[in-house]
Amino acid sequence: MFDQRAELFNGLSAQQHDEILDLGALMALPSGSVLFDLGARAEHLYVVLRGRIRLTLPMQIRGRDEDVLVEESGPGETIGWSALIPPCRYTLKATAPLETEVLALPREALRSYFAANPATGAAVTQNVATLIGRRLQLFQAMWLREMQRMVELRCA
Amino acid sequence: MEMFLMAVCISLFGLAVTAAAFGAATQREQMQEDALPERETAAKVVPAHFFAEDIVVPAQPMPKVPIEALLLQIDSHVRLEHAAAESFLQYPTTALLHSRTCSPLVH
Question: What distances in angstroms separate CA A62 from CA A59, A68, A135, B67, B71, one per listed residue?
Answer without folding.
Answer: 10, 13, 29, 8, 12
